[in-house]
Amino acid sequence: MKKLKLSTVLLALAAPLAAAVVSIIISSVAVLASKKSPFDAYKTMWDFGTTSGSLMQVLNTATPYYIAAVAIAITFRAGLFNIGVEGQLRLGAIFGAYFGAKFILPPVLHVIAIMVIAMTIGGLWAAIAGYLKVKRGVSEVISTIMLNSLAGGLSSYLLANYFVDRTTDSNNMSTKTLPKSGQFPNLMPLLNKFGVADQPGGGVYGMLVFAIALGFVFWFVINRTRFGFELRASGSNPIAARFSGVNSRRMTFVAMALSGAVAGLAGLPAVLGDTHAFNMGFRTGIGFSAIAVALLGRNNPVGMGLSALLFGFLEVSSRSLELIDIAPETYVIMQGSILLSSVIAYEVVRRYKITLQSKELAKAVVA
Amino acid sequence: MSVAVELRHISKRFPGVIANKDVSMSVETGTVHALVGENGAGKSTVMKILYGMQRPDSGEILVNGTAVHFKNPNDAIDASIGMVHQHFMLADNFTVLENVILGSEPKHGITIDFAAARKKVVEMAAQYGLDIDPDVLVEELGVGQRQRVEILKVLYRGARILIFDEPTAVLVPQEVDDLFNALKGLRAQGMAIIFISHKLDEVLRVADDVTVVRAGSTVAEVKSKDVTARQLAELMVGSELPQPTTHGDTRRPEITLALKDVSIPTKSGSRDLISKVTFNLHAGEVVGIAGVEGNGQAELVEAIMGLREYTGVIEFSGQDMNHLSVAHRRDLGIGLIPEDRQRQAMMMESPLWENRILGHQRGKPVMNGFVLDKKTTIVDTKAIMEEFDVRAPGPQTLAAALSGGNQQKFIVGREMSKAPSLLVASHPTRGVDVGAQGAIWEELRRAREKGMAIVLISADLEELIGMSDRLLVMLRGAITAELDPAKTTPEQLGSAMTGAA
Q1: Residue ranges of the domains in chain A?
Q2: Subunit contact B362:A243, Cβ cutoff 8 A
Q3: Among B12, B51, B86, B154, which is most exposed with the fewest C-beta within 10 angstroms?
Q4: Residue B248 lies in a domain
Q5: Are residues B289 and B191 in the same domain?
Q6: What are the tens digits of pLDDT across the range B80-118?
Q7: pLDDT of residue A361
Q8: How far apart are CA A156 and CA A114, in angstroms?
Q9: What is the pLDDT of residue A2?
């Protein structure tokens, strides 16, 4: 039994290790192609990335990635693919920021209210795709991509024409700043107590804590509740799910809407914790990077956490590459090669596992 | 006649288990020799040893009277042994000719001598009656023809002893006939053919001799003309065959299921998929639905389960179910064994304990309120596996790793575990071995005695006649006859099914 455990552990580690080795080779080739030493590049990234200022930025980058990745994982588990997280989080953020600045509530309630607005908007936006899929058979991949374009245009239009705060005359169009009660407290004061010194760049978003809690809730709901089971069943075998009494159309709709609701929150860490408003500098691309984060993390809450941190680290630390004259965008190649090699490695290991089990079974049956 | 290949007292152990123990058989040239046994009896291990894929721990193999020691399949091929695998190993984008010579191409300097290859392949095909166009792409071929290419491949490499591993599993009846003709042709040319199968009627049709394997050992070698399918089956199981029978009348007065004029119209307005089906089913009664497949049985099941829109009324214990969802119907106490277990009843890449939940996710024992009770589920899964003899390492095993028969036993066990008052069973014993078949029948009998009402759909006429209290014949969506199974022979039922009676 102990031997078996060891082999299981080795098997679990095989895929990520193989993927890491392959992606390091690919990335090194990319650096070599620009006639620079990969070792210098990695060392520079590491030295820069592990300063405490950088690490805080890594956390801040990873937090929205993680929330968005959870949103995508919900649909992956249901056998769907929500590519529209980018649009959902954008709309969630702008509506949350705009309406959140319109009223005053006690501190915690105010933040919750903004979150609810963002979730509702994100959920409704994704529900359009869910509705089209269930009623009209439109592929959610296509419709969410199109909804992304619409969301991008819609949010710019709303910001420029209706939501912009005309009391300030900055060039950066922005919604009205959220009142203090609608801001998510920063973790910096807490970190100070543990002896971490302030760093330029704004500390650590409080929504980090929320993201971690969200990961746990995601795990519990998906793996330990009836709803989660039915969602996974319709993902892994929709026909059998239907024969088992799961209303698979409703499940498709609900999974899309729920995913959108979670996605609606992914733009909030910066809005509630840093800018305190939605402005033109709102980060783009979170929803797309999050697809990679979810894939790399295999829809697993811990795995997605690690991959969100990895992506955040690569993104932040690669800024230092400019210092040694390498294009910082090299991190995109790194992220891509990590994703590709890990997807392949996991598939290889998965097939090997099935073969292994069949063999074990053959022995057990003959016995 | 001479002996082409002989196995003497072959034994093979895997760590902890004995796969083969004292296996002996001898195959004469110019004969078809069948190797039969239940799933997991050790047929495949025997063949892997003979084909050099595994080495025996003890015993010897003689080919044409000489002892041989194969280290790998190449040695076996050199000794003129060839294997036609159940799953074809062909390159789709190659022609038949290219596939046949792949790996042993005749060379002309450094180029392939296609002319010589073609000549040889065409000659061979003609000689053995394996009619096929050498220049067509394999992707354009049907299953039967692909198999022919596999056979040609083996012959091309000079095989005189041919092993066929479950060759009919993938074929339709017409293709089976073609294959058997080809086998007879090969036999006439002095080949020795080893035919692995568990379909006994086919074995008796094509084989001259039959060797029976049970629990890793050969238990009998008989001439096929001296035995019946039933005797062979009994040799395979090692005891008297289970009979699909029920005892006495366990029918209770209360009506569990009532159908009144149930129809499923098509949107196009053509003939209804099922039309005005009406019957009552009492508690403790088994009603058998007979019919050639595709005459509305599947649709009837879907209507009863609420998987399809229908007109008319379906009542369960006096309650109108028309507007109830699948989930509600299951909650009321209806169990379902669907006809296509992998597609309709399992999550193949999930462990068995999760499959235990499927269809039962709305209550005890797998759920505690809305929260999944993993511990209890695993314990319960183990219990089902023990009671229904599901052979797998444990509840964590993936469903995909189980053989079809074990999957079926698991599904039957899962559906019975809730003791439903109505069980809809579509082909409950299809594809399971004889032992499991008996066990499933026994479960159905016991449940019937306890008052379960059963709708039984089956293509096995003996099963239908033996297990049912009443037979309804479905033809083109309508019930065309009601028969008393006690007074019906399979032949009579068969002709009623085709509308000939």
Answers
A1: 35-326
A2: no
A3: B86
A4: no
A5: no
A6: 999 988 778 888 888 999 888 888 788 777 888 888 888
A7: 62
A8: 20
A9: 41
Give me the mean pLDDT over the B240-260 stretch: 82
Do B319 and B219 lie in one domain? The reply is: no
Domain shared by B480 and B409, yes or no? yes
Same domain, yes or no: B178 and B40: yes
Sign of the C-alpha dihedral computed for residues A193, A195, A199 and A204 taken in this order: negative
Neighbours of A253 (CB within 10 A): 20
> Do residue B328 and residue B449 come from a single domain?
yes
Take residue B409 and report the two structure tokens written for it.
């036993």
Is B500 inside any structural domain?
no
What number is the ipTM of this complex? 0.82
Based on the fold, state whether residues B8 and B130 are members of the same structural domain. Answer: yes
The model's pLDDT over B8-32, given as tens digits with 9 standing for 90+, comes to 998 887 765 667 888 889 899 999 9
Residue of A nearest to B38 (CA): A366
Q: Is B93 helix (H, G, I), strand (E, B) or coil?
A: coil
What are the residues facing B290 on neighbouring strands? Answer: B473
Digit-coded pLDDT (tens) for A269-300: 999 998 899 998 899 999 999 999 998 888 99
**Structural domain contains residue B244:** no
Instruction: Kindly tell me if the per-residue pLDDT of A263 is higher than 80.
Output: yes
Higher pLDDT, A265 or B403: A265
Check B367 against A226: CB less than 8 A apart.
Answer: yes
Longest dimension (CA), chain B: 86
User: Would the CB atoms of B361 and A247 count as touching at under 8 Å?
Assistant: no
Pick the closest to residue B337 from B400, B426, B246 (CA basis). Answer: B426
pTM for the full predicted model: 0.75
Would you call A242 and B392 a contact, using CB atoms and an 8 Å cutoff? no
CATH number at residue B32: 3.40.50.300
Q: Calculate Rg over the CA atoms of chain B.
A: 26
* Same-domain check for residues B269 and B231: no
Task: Please say which residue of B196, B211, B237 terminates a domain.
Answer: B237
> Architecture of domain A35-326 in CATH?
Orthogonal Bundle (1.10)
Helix axes A85-100, A52-77, angle to 10 degrees: 110
Q: Which domain holds residue B157?
A: 3-237
Higher pLDDT, B135 or A258: A258
The pLDDT > 90 percentage for chain B reads: 34
> Which residue shows structure tokens 């797309």?
A288
C-beta of residue A185 within 8 angstroms of C-beta of residue A291: no
Task: Give the closest residue to A215 by CA, choosing from A92, A304, A327.
Answer: A304
| Of the partner residues B331, B358, B371, the one whose CB lies closest to the CB of residue A240 | B358
Of B326, B350, B372, the CB nearest to A242: B326
H, E, C per residue of B245-305? CCCCCCCCCCEEEEEEEEEECCCCCCCCCEEEEEEEEECCCEEEEECCCCCCHHHHHHHHH
Tens digit of each residue's pLDDT (9 = 90 or more) over A136-180: 999 999 999 999 999 999 999 999 999 988 877 667 789 999 999
Q: What is the pLDDT of residues B436-485, one digit of tens each?
A: 888 889 889 999 999 999 999 998 888 899 999 999 999 888 999 899 98
Does B269 lie in the same domain as B174?
no
Q: Is the dihedral of CA B466, B38, B336, A135 positive or negative?
A: negative
| B residues 343-382 closer than 8 Å to A (CB) | 343-350, 354, 357-362, 367, 370-372, 374
A342-365 pLDDT tens trace:
888 888 888 887 777 766 666 655
